[in-house]
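Database export, one record per block. Field names are fixed; values are copied verbatim from the stored entry.
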Amino acid sequence: MKITGLLAGRIALASTLTVVAACAAAQEHDWDYGTEHGPAHWGHLKPEFAPCQMGHHQSPIDIATTQKADLPALELDYHPTPLRIIDNGHTVMVTYAPGSSLRVGDRQYALQQFHFHRPSEEKIHGKGYEMSVHLVHADATGHLAVVAILLEKGQEQPLIRELWRNLPKEKGKQEEHADILVDAAQLLPEKHAYYTFEGSLTTPPCTENVTWFVLKQPVSVSSSEIERFSKVYSSDARPVQPLYDRVVMESR
């Protein structure tokens, strides 16, 4: 049977989103951040997790050496969405309704979800941050793009405060609040300069061919907001991975 380009793109997107959903909302807790089933062993836990061990484009990384260039601006077009939040056993994740997007040059990606890590998975010249938030996007062909925002201790972050007020009491069960609107735009720093590189999902199955955009300007969160997340996940960050032959580009 001949598959048209459009149909092939839809199939690829559906397949990719299945991977994202399985990764971010896995109910089988066959991996974790501990000793026996933690990051050092992910690649051996299941055949489909092999990229965690064998891949050469893995994330996160320590962004130490970069090449500056005139890169296209990140056009972040985010809109409010009814709150759908889940504690999936690995992180706290918010699923986004259709209509919000990221455009970089001639490529456009739809915002699918965002979730949190403590401490930050990304490092900048060896420096880590208190937390990070990953905004996961997908284009029509299924290619993923993740915008990473570094969170440092400082002033209260209103959107995170609202999310923590509505943390699910039961793991693995998504809660929906039609009367509460959240806007991912509130997470963004004032400036959108960024580092970019080809990488992977930072959780099993560690799928590669993910384009990363790490914003250079951190966002402040309060000590109490950090502490509240720490009560749920004191550590849910994969260690940095080898860069191999990749080049990290930096916007001017």
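Remark 1: The radius of gyration is 17 Å.
Remark 2: The first helix runs from residue 5 to 24.
End of record.
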